[in-house]
Amino acid sequence: MEPSSPPELKTQDQGCSSPDNAGHPWAVTESLRLCRFLCYGSESATYSTRERALGPESALALMELVQASRGCEVVEEVKRLSLEGKTVRPNPALFALAVCSQHSDARAKQAAFRALQELCRSPGQLFTFIQYKKELKDGLCCGMWGRSLRRAVSDWYNSQDALSLAHTVTRCKHRAGWSHQDLLRLSHMKPANDAIALISKYVMKGWKVVQETYADKENSEELTKVFAYLEAVEKAKHSTDELEVVHLIEEYRLEREQILTSHLKSKEVWKALLKEMSVAALMRHLGKMTADKVLMPGSPEVAAVCERIQDEQALAKAKTHPFSVLVASENYKRGHGKRGKLKWEPNRDIVQALDCALSKSLSNVEPTGKRFVVGVDVSMCLHSLALGSSVSSVAVAAAMSMVIARTEPDAEVLIFSEEGLVPCAISADTSLIQVTAQLVQVQSVGTDCALPIQWALENDKTVDVFIIFTNNETHFGSTNPTEALRTYREKVAVFSKLIVCGMTTNGLSVADPDDRGMLDICGFDSRAVDVIRNFVLDVI
Q1: Contact present, 403 and 322 (Cβ < 8 Å)
Q2: Threshold 0.85, pTM exceeds
Q3: 298 contact partners, CB below 8 Å, separation of at least 6
Q4: Is 233 within a domain?
């Protein structure tokens, strides 16, 4: 069966980096390397939870395509993957746009600036794009603040609804060494309307000048709303009255980022913020709110939080993956933060609500329709923390095994070590605790990542994807996993893929870099979940 692949760029790719593999059906093409880079920031077959700085040396396929006057095609690929939600990290796409916008090809440059309006949804992304342009300026021997960039930045501000822009500039003021004041000054922005002009004056001159200019005038309805919103933000910044801050939060829907740190010591302020907080933010701050006595046992706040955490519609709207709930649950149950002195006594009702949310969020996972074999290596202690998420390796392996087994129509989970394999029974009503118990009761020494592949071959199992969960780099048994996979492909006539998750290591070398059907994952975080899905569905 011939493998499917990511959409190729219009011009013929140069093929795999290895001459021996040129024209091979599993060859790694320039298009695939670009897709990998745009997805997770590396052209290699390794996803790492440790995010590394981006530069021309980490995006060779991108640089070659742009140098070959194919920048417009690169921009289209950036837009496709970004708008379809296939990029698990935003920065690689911004870096690619910055490269295309710096090139001498006028069409590629214009395409990159046009895409900027669609892809830079937050000021943080815009600031990051500008910083990449600054870093590339010397290496590519080109200017920076030309007419095209000034127009693109001006359009970014002028194209927004005034109230949305007021929220934006007060919520995220600076990042990556840039601020709104820097960008408005360097772009020479001319406001598109009076409301944008008011916001521009606020950013450049400050609130006092805005008051002097607009306070005693008869302003339009839009100007009045923008003025009132900015006034609320300023009052919240300077007020020492707890009740006034609470009132401002509730009336103007102010967010945590718009509130002074000193106000976040107030229980009432947290209770006000809680009403509009997203499900993701709510789960992230459970420990802080419990430590600060905002969430007291038996309180209305705890009841409200538990109800929202278990709300299937809210979980579905936020596209909450079970692994994200697992991370929130494990962090909360731990009773202390990763850094600092923050400690709390986990609330039993909240713990139960998180366990319930984990089960309910399974319905948010769309099946891929592929045939899976999941192998969990139990040759070493699985209680070490997985890099990138501060969740134990056994919790990661148990959660991902349960997700795959309960959402995919054809999936088998195997517990293995050098001594052999044992099936892991997971049914529709099996809980995470029950899956975990099966993993920890079978432990041995020595491992061989080829065993699940050999088991499938010996038992006439047709498998599209093998996923191996282990702690770190493992020694090979009688057969190298890559060789075992190729043998399996030949005998079963299926382009099977192999994913090896080394949950406690920063370096793996199982995947053949010249075989697009193999992937190594170092550590494990919520982004790794999306990387796996992209890989399984031939996006990368």
Answers
A1: yes
A2: yes
A3: none
A4: no
